[in-house]
Write a structure and sequence with these properties.
Blueprint lengths: L1 H6 L4 H14 L4 H19 L9 H24 L5 H15 L3 H15 L4 H10 L10 H17 L2 H14 L9 H14 L4 H14 L2 H13 L8 H7 L1 H7 L2
Length: 257
């Protein structure tokens, strides 16, 4: 449900109204507070736009900061009400809010560490969020995200193999684009996805992100290979094949006979 809240494409004003009505009806709802926080976060970035800070108007920056502060409040309410099952996601969202509000790295790192402490292992959401925060265009230094990727891989090698590198890569692409300020190792990223698939062969999100990034990189051989293994049932063997085919119908039409 948390991933759905984060990714669903709904007009931000409608999301805010929906979240406010939810909280009014169920003020103790952790998910309701998270939904409203994500609505404010979406509205903040829409108001700011994609320009550099120097090319963003004072009114845009004021609306950006105001809505991120509202998101921060809702997330802290969610954290206060949480019984710890949702903490990983809440702390990951707070990392994203902190990126926009220019929180010091020490404060953001505390949220990353809390996310990891709550989950017992490094997982996708905090890795994506923190790797975005430490990009040079935001609050990081040259080489910092690479060092973070190496540390994350070593920290989780027993459970994920190289898989943590894929999660960091997803954060880089989400916050900087495929080839903007950083150059990720795509061959290593593919090995990381293969390690994740080996451990989670039925995880459709991993497969979807793998295919999406391969498409962005123009790696046709990779796409054909992954789709072929899906077709044969080697990947996602327990997923309804009709659903899998529907989810990837455009790629299938392009790359499979």
């Amino acid at each position: 449900l948390f991933d759905l809240i984060k990714t669903v494409e709904i007009e931000s004003q409608a999301m805010v109204k929906f979240g406010q009505a939810w909280i009014k009806r169920e003020p103790q709802s952790v998910v309701g507070h998270i939904a409203l926080a994500n609505a404010y976060d979406q509205m903040a970035w829409e108001q700011r736009g994609g320009n550099s800070a120097a090319s963003t108007s004072a009114a845009q920056m004021e609306g950006f900061q105001r809505n991120l502060e509202l998101a921060d409040k809702q997330l802290r309410d969610a954290l206060r009400l949480s019984r710890h099952g949702e903490d990983l996601y809440i702390h990951s969202c707070l990392i994203d809010v902190g990126r926009g509000l220019n929180w010091p790295e020490r404060k953001v790192r505390q949220h990353f560490d809390e996310a990891i402490r709550g989950s017992g292992a490094l997982t996708a959401a905090p890795l994506r969020a923190y790797s975005g925060y430490i990009l040079p265009r935001w609050h990081g230094k040259p080489g910092q995200w690479e060092q973070f990727a190496e540390e994350s891989v070593e920290r989780t090698r027993t459970s994920l193999g190289e898989g943590a590198y894929a999660y960091v890569y997803e954060g880089i692409v989400g916050h900087a684009g495929v080839e903007t300020e950083v150059r990720c190792d795509w061959m290593r990223c593919k090995r990381a996805y293969e390690d994740l698939i080996l451990r989670y062969p039925d995880d459709s999100e991993i497969i979807a992100l793998y295919l999406s990034l391969a498409s962005l990189r123009g790696d046709k051989d990779c796409i054909k290979n992954v789709l072929g293994r899906m077709e044969s049932g080697k990947i996602m063997p327990h997923l309804d094949r009709r659903l899998a085919n529907l989810q990837n119908k455009d790629l299938r039409a392009q790359f499979l006979p």
